[in-house]
């Protein structure tokens, strides 16, 4: 899914960009926790999408889905 791609992208960018400058995982607890938070946000976004997909496919009803969420997925 889109969120999973962003999580993997974040991890790989952190590894590539900071190979000569910062360690990965970072020894600074704030940056290390921020890296972990990105994983949690990606998982949470995926889980919150499941009810909307079920409503569309199972109930065949698009009333009440979040247009803002779906627009943000495509950005």
Describe what you observe in this structure.
The protein is about 70% helix and about 0% strand. The protein is mainly α and about 80 residues long. The chain has one domain (about 1-75). Helix 1 packs antiparallel against helix 2 (about 30-55). The chain starts with a helix and ends with a helix.
Search tags:
75 residues, mainly alpha, 69% helix
Helix and strand topology:
Elements: H1 2-17, H2 29-57, H3 67-73
Percentage of residues in DSSP E strands: under 5%
Runs with pLDDT <50, length 5+? none
Radius of gyration based on Cα positions: 16 Å
Structural class: mainly alpha
Overall average pLDDT: 80
* Largest sheet geometry: none
The portion of residues assigned to helices is 55-70%
Distance between the termini: 13 Å
Elements, N to C (H/E): HHH
Q: How many helical stretches?
A: 3
Q: TL;DR of this structure?
A:
The chain is built from three helices and no strands. With 75 residues, the chain is an all-alpha fold.
């Amino acid at each position: 899914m889109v969120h999973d791609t962003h999580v993997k992208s974040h991890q790989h960018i952190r590894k590539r960009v900071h190979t000569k400058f910062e360690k990965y995982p970072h020894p600074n607890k704030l940056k290390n926790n921020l890296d972990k938070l990105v994983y949690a946000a990606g998982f949470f976004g995926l889980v919150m999408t499941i009810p909307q997909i079920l409503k569309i496919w199972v109930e065949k009803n698009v009333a009440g889905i979040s247009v803002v969420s779906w627009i943000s997925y495509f950005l």
